[in-house]
Batch of 2 targets.
Target 1
Amino acid sequence: MKDYFLCDTCEDKFNRRGEDWIMKQCYRGRGRFWLRDKLTPEKVMMAHEGSSVYPGATIEGIDVAALTYFPLSVFWRPAARSWQLRGQEMPALRLGPYEEALRVYLLDLTPFPENVALTVWVSTADVPLFATHFPISERAETSIVHRFYIPGIQFTLSVGKQIDDSIRKGCIATGAGNPIFASDKTEAVPRDRFRKWLLQHEPAGGIVPMMPNVSVE
């Protein structure tokens, strides 16, 4: 999915501030997952039932700024205009007043937006889902939650004045130590969404996975 949208200056900014680094750090296939490799057991802040929390601020080689800027740029783009995939218009991401808040943040005109929490989840699966999906939205009890996934990493954006305190504390930009989460459950939602998308767009000859290591059960 691509189109002419940004000027060269902004395109370069988005690349330098996060895209290039993130694309090298996410799961690349054949066991290459450099972001996860940096999350070694001795660096765990907290662990519970298969999930762990790491202090992104103190782990060598982790670019917290890129892990913040990149996902916010991705969440902003489908809210700023409409996009098409194989001739089908994708539903716009409705960020309300937070669309403008993200835009001015991405331009470095304001600090990290208020009433916004961004959490980063790294997969600990032996073979992470090698796919991605268009950002999706759902209503939680106290906020609106938007999420998208790239191979091995899920980004979740919660917006609203009543975001749960536990979610605020888990924000990679504002939480203590810049927390990064890791779990074998990271891909539960992305995998379910991707399967539904494949079934909805099944070609005449049957389902053809867009990337290796993806199957529909």
Target 2
Amino acid sequence: MKKLAITALAALSLAACSQNAQNETAEAANATAADASAATGEAVSDVDAATENAFGSAEQSLDQTGQAIENGAETTGAAIANGADAAADATGNVLTKAGKAIED
């Protein structure tokens, strides 16, 4: 009878220990899942931020390129206008000289 009581007590202790081990294992699994979820959330945030920065940089580069093209077009237009004015002035001077030469 004594052996039976000791065996029953040992079985109960083992069952209780086993339930405790199961609870701890479940808690560890939950903690691991929470950590993985948090890490995934942070990774998504990092990718979103990097994407936003890349788009912002590309937009800024396109704006700068557009401004450079506009500045170049304005400079070219001004050079053509100045050249046309100079040609008109030169033509007017030649015609004035020719008119004076005919008068003399």
